[in-house]
Amino acid sequence: MPIATDPLSRIFFALADPTRRAMLERLSAGAATVGELAEPFPISRPAVSQHLGVLEDAGLIERTRQGQWRSCALRPEGLDDAERWVAEHRTAWQSRFDRLDDALANLTGDRGAPAGTTGPGSATATDDADQADASVGEQKEER
């Protein structure tokens, strides 16, 4: 699978690694040298450099060099694209969850028997799940 190169994908790729998230967390307290960032991790310096490269390519940090010292600083505006994407999708997700909650409440409130019981004229648990899926606008895959 090819690696996505769009800015949003680079941000989420950078955030997907716990070592990189820990480095960002450390940088939230202020700029740090590469050595300070590497200290808590049992990884090689080249691996640290690769992690920092991913963070820099994603626009989440800025690396500078002063003499023999290399330091890194957080670029909080680097998260703006990801924050905007999450905010745009949060509304739709919340709406779907609210509709699912309503559908589940209707399913459990309309029937006196516990879910999954069968009898003359009653639905099975599978039918209930299909109805819940339909109520949130998603089609259920055939099994």
TrEMBL record:
GO molecular function ontology, one term from the record: DNA-binding transcription factor activity
Coiled coil: none
SMART domains hit by this protein: HTH_ARSR
Biased segments, Low complexity type: 108-126
Domain HTH arsR-type: 1-94
InterPro entries in alphabetical order: ArsR-like_HTH, HTH_ArsR_DNA-bd_dom, WH-like_DNA-bd_sf, WH_DNA-bd_sf
Annotated Pfam families: HTH_20
Region (Disordered): 106-143
Listed name of the protein: Transcriptional regulator, ArsR family
Organism: Agrococcus baldri
